[in-house]
């Protein structure tokens, strides 16, 4: 197994920290245990910027920090109980979603032939990653609370689609410029094959 370089460790830590900060901005909703947060934007940017390997690692570090009790989950919560609770599937989904986004961006980037097409690849990859997060999150919500599939979708997916669409759009825009800045500064992770 290849050891991470110092640059890769630092970039992974930065994106894990960014997700921690974005998680603290949480708006509870009265009809669901799932709050509105900015998590998704951090997860999407981690996968798109760092690629599948470091995106996965950055969000894995985020989940691990919360699992050991640090208050990095939504609303300043922490502990393994959160991961095992109704909303824990979304946290697990962040790790897998970042990997999926990074995988898609790395493999679709060969088709990019300009700013618009690269933005579309980022956006499309983030939407697929968001779907992965929704599926894993809704499955655990359903299992823990004993909901039906329609109930899990109604409380764990539908209320967030519009706001998450905005977050993903903004995330794709920011990730485009961050990636290009890293590329020009020779800081792009070596495992990330995304063209800039």
Automatic annotation (TrEMBL):
Gene3D superfamilies: 1.10.1760.20
Keywords in alphabetical order: Cell membrane, Membrane, Transmembrane, Transmembrane helix, Transport
Main location: membrane
Transmembrane segments: 9-27, 33-50, 62-84, 90-108, 120-141, 153-178
Domain of life of the native organism: Bacteria
Membrane topology term: Multi-pass membrane protein
Localisation per UniProt entry: Cell membrane
Pfam families hit by this protein: BioY
Entries under PANTHER family matching the protein: BIOTIN TRANSPORTER BIOY
Family stated for the protein in its record: Belongs to the BioY family.
Protein name, entry field: Biotin transporter
Species this protein is from: Acetoanaerobium pronyense
Organism taxonomic ancestry: Bacteria, Bacillati, Bacillota, Clostridia, Peptostreptococcales
């Amino acid at each position: 197994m290849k050891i991470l370089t110092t640059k890769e460790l630092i970039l992974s830590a930065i994106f894990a920290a960014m997700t921690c900060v974005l998680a603290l901005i949480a708006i509870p909703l009265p009809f669901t245990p799932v709050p509105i947060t900015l998590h998704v934007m951090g997860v999407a940017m981690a996968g798109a910027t760092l690629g599948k390997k470091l995106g996965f690692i950055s969000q894995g570090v985020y989940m691990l920090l919360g699992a050991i009790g640090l208050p990095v989950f939504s609303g300043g919560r922490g502990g393994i109980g959160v991961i095992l609770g109704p909303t824990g599937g979304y946290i697990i989904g962040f790790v897998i979603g970042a990997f999926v986004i990074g995988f898609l961006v790395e493999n679709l980037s060969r088709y990019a032939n300009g700013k618009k097409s690269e933005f579309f690849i980022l956006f499309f990859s983030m939407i697929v990653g968001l779907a992965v997060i929704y599926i894993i999150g809704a499955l655990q919500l359903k299992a823990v609370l004993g909901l039906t599939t329609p109930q899990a979708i109604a409380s764990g997916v539908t209320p967030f689609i519009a706001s998450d669409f905005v977050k993903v759009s903004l995330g794709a825009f920011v990730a485009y410029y961050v990636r290009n800045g890293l590329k020009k500064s020779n800081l792009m992770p070596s495992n990330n094959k995304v063209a800039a």
